[in-house]
Design goal:
Blueprint: H1 2-19, H2 26-37, H3 45-59, H4 65-75, H5 88-96, E1 97-98, E2 103-104, H6 116-121, E3 128-133, E4 139-148, E5 151-161, E6 166-168, E7 173-175, H7 178-185, E8 197-198
Parallel strand pairs: 3-8
Antiparallel strand pairs: 1-2, 3-4, 4-5, 5-6, 6-7
Length: 225
């Protein structure tokens, strides 16, 4: 599967060049890419929103080719083996969309320039955690605060994309989803719980609207009556 993900990243780079997306806004990038990857008339509003917001959180206000390739490597593959069916849009929606809040799960901080380690440490609570992009392609980084010998210690773990799940560096096990990993380390584990309280990301201010009048923070489309 690592080879498939590397190939997906290569395809993403070729698509980026084809569509001339360098330095374009995430909203523009999302619209162009979804048109290539999926029938946008049949893509759900949630999946379109989720993909757009994830690009905003990872690429920032303007996208770079290497960033997009890393994005695809980390959340791919684009298609199922021996199939033309696109899977990355569905995967992002299933894994990262919080339907109750109509937003990306607050534990995901993307490529925030906020000091993620400090945000976790400042809670001073055992089990506080957040997840963000890794320094290299293909994995996410998790920061959590853990109490050991009456001292609070910052722990770091890596969740590596296997294409059909996430391999936890700490547990040396592959979980089918981030939710499954959170459950295995969450409050239901009693004294063994390590992921208890989410450290929520700070949303970008809506004052910084782009030229189309859309704020940097994407908004979920209004539900139709």
């Amino acid at each position: 599967m690592p080879g498939d993900l590397e190939n997906a990243a290569k395809q993403a780079g070729e698509l980026w060049d084809k569509l001339n997306l360098e330095n374009k806004e995430p909203e523009v990038i999302a619209k162009a890419v979804i048109k290539e990857w999926s029938d946008s008339d049949h893509a759900s509003e949630a999946s379109i929103y989720c993909f757009t917001k994830m690009l905003q959180l990872v690429l920032g206000p303007s996208g770079k080719k290497a960033q997009f390739q890393n994005f695809v490597h980390t959340f791919g593959p684009i298609e199922k083996p021996n199939s033309d069916e696109n899977v990355i849009l569905d995967r992002l929606e299933k894994e990262f969309f919080d339907n109750s809040k109509k937003n990306i799960h607050s534990w995901f901080h993307g490529n925030s320039d906020q000091d993620s380690k400090k945000m976790v440490k400042d809670t001073k609570k055992h089990g506080s955690y957040l997840i963000r992009m890794g320094e290299d392609a293909g994995y996410l980084t998790l920061y959590r605060l853990s109490k050991k010998d009456d001292k609070m210690m910052l722990a770091t773990s890596r969740l590596t994309n296997t294409g059909d799940g996430w391999k936890c560096q700490e547990k040396k096990k592959i979980f089918e989803s981030i939710a499954a990993y959170q459950e295995a380390r969450g409050p239901s584990q009693g004294e063994q719980a390590r992921l208890i309280t989410v450290v929520p990301r700070k949303e970008a201010p809506t004052a910084g609207a782009n030229k189309n009048g859309n704020p940097y923070t994407a908004r979920m489309p209004e539900e139709k009556a």
